[in-house]
Amino acid sequence: MSDTPHPSPPKEHPHRDQPIETAGAPSQAAEAAVILLHGRGSTAPAILRHIDDLYHHGVMYLAPQAARNRWYPHSGYAPFERNEPWFSSALERVAAAVDEAAAVGIPPEKVLCFGFSQGACLGCEFVARNPQEYGGLVSLSGSLLGPETRSDYDGSLDSTPVFFGCGTDDPYVPAERIHESRWVFKQLGGDVTISLYEDLDHAINDDEFYQTNSLIEQLR
Q1: Cα(158)–Cα(166) distance, integer angstroms
Q2: Is residue 8 part of a domain?
Q3: DSSP-assigned beta bridge partners for residue 161
């Protein structure tokens, strides 16, 4: 096994040169898109394996890869500036995935953002900071970020469906941050649903896949 270290990412835009992996429907046949955002320590190919549970005909799946397998280096509940420039670069990669879908004729209202853990937090922040009608947001074991949940996001999600799923005793995501995030997305005009599960650690369960599949089905 090689001991060669990973090359250092660009200092100002650490995620910029990372790939966006794709699967599912080819671009010329895709009617909708799902952006899959992996968690800390994971990879784009790993989260793409979830399409076995989320596959729908006519749907393209796009999975951006984070540099060094993390979207930001410190706690998501630290001040935003502590995670820069990683955090802003991560937001740019989500925007690039939305643009990639648009380039093949899939508008935002046919794009669903699905994230787990760090990826869920990133998806929440991207949608809240870029409000418009999307096909949906699925945040599993994630919430809006920062030391306190911000309430100054501005714009309208125009009834975009938003689903939060999380364990009641998740070791990384306090339940109160989920409730605070729900309030923010409702203020932005999202159609928000929460499911808090007992006996679920930092993981994804079958009901969360069921809820996600219901939203993907509505995209087509």
Answers
A1: 24
A2: no
A3: 191
